[in-house]
Amino acid sequence: MLVGLLLGAAGATGVAFASPVTLARLTPDTTAQDGGSFNIGLGGIGGIGEPATEGGGTPTGGGDRPPASSATTTTTTTTTTTSSTTTTTTTTAETTSAAPSSSQAAPQAQATTTTPSRAVDASQAQWVVQLVNEAREAAGCRPLKVDDRITAAAKAHSTDMATRGYFSHTTPEGVDFATRMRAAGYSRPGGENIAKGQRNAEDVMKSWMNSDGHRRNILDCSFVAIGVGLDTRGWYWTQNFGR
């Protein structure tokens, strides 16, 4: 099935390159949406996003995939920003969840929660890491090691975006990903990819890998560590990389 992508190129959209020391001025991240299609916003810090071509692949992974939520995706957006020392990316999608069916009549309707558990968050985040390392292996790069400090920064940013309802590499107060990673105790921030709306690891990786800027961050052989955060309230993904 053909997935249409709208890409915003860093530089072409007026996004200035950033470094871990100071984040240059960024135009606000957009979340343009087109019903039934995936949309890509601004690219990661230092990366340049260009229109994706048909047949952009999703890395395949070994082992059992975590169960994906039963939902219908209506829109997705991703953005990426990259610098010589830093990188970031974003993706957004809106979804509708299917109502659970009952196998037999019950005397009284039972409430069913549709909020995914933290276990789902963790398993999907772990699967993203596996897909990243499979893609890196195919490109001749070393696998990334999960770092708890980077993971903490990524989780906190996903939660902050979901809680306050924004979608950007920079918080409303102007805090960039490099600052967040250092605050979490990691001194060599490398980059960030973010996404919103994809309801499983394979979908979000497909969106990122079909974008030149996001893919460049994932396949940057100078990166050595990774942390992935997911908040399922809106499905906000954050992928942070360390050098």
TrEMBL record:
Residues 43-118 are annotated as: Disordered. Keywords: Signal. Residues 130-241 form the SCP domain. The keyword tRNA processing does not apply. InterPro entries: CAP_dom, CAP_sf. The keyword Transferase does not apply. This is SCP domain-containing protein.
